[in-house]
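[09:14] KT: can someone run the structure on this one? pasting the chain below
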Amino acid sequence: MNIKSLLLRTVSGIVYIAIIVGCILWGSFPLSIMAAAFAALAIVEFEKITKELSSATVPTLLLDIAGGVCFAFGWMFFPMIIWIFVILCRMTLELYIKSPTPLANLAKSLMAQLYIALPLGIMAAMGEWWGTHLILAVFCMIWINDTGAFVVGSLLGKHRLFERVSPKKSWEGFFGGLAFNLATGALFSSLWAQFFGLEGLWQWLVMGVIVTVFATWGDLVESLIKRTLHIKDSGNLIPGHGGILDRIDSLLFVMPAVFIYVFFLKLI
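[09:31] RB: done, structure tokens below
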């Protein structure tokens, strides 16, 4: 990688992180707007990279995007009513577009809602119900896990984690990311537990394990999708980093898992 490419990658990464952190700290409604934007962009990318599997039309794409945007505001009652209506319209529309692959079309649309829109909607709902600072902590742990996995994997990686899907990932990298996240959890517990809204060392250590495991699975699932479609990146929206789907693949698995975990913590 030359200096120009490295500089472009660095700047675009800083801008991406700044947008996320800014929206999170601004409040729950800006977080929902960010979730809606991510959902719309990721669904468009998903439709593009899977176009060889099934056909898509402008109306079906718009309905898929509308469903994703509604999900981002799913913590409010009215958008979820609209989402139900959108899904019914999307399924009914398949009767009239005369596609040779109707089942594949519907399966792709519903996968976009479940795989992309639902986790982003969960993220927005968590921000509204439990505070956006917890969302910031999750993002930090995802990024720290990626950093730890990359550093340790690059230096010590020998044993392949899932070679069939992602040849470069190693068990050493996985445990490196886990170690970084456990250390981060301990740090958050001792210094910023009240700020992030989760108290107790064991709660943060469990959070670190959850983020590492589900971030890894999320990354591997997107790698499986790309390997099946014979593509390297989902897009080129973020220079040097690929598409938005490449950037949020871990998030799409981590947020539902964290939601379940925090939900049960609130019960006990």
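[09:33] KT: thanks! The first strand starts at residue 160 and ends at 162.
[09:34] RB: yep, looked fine to me
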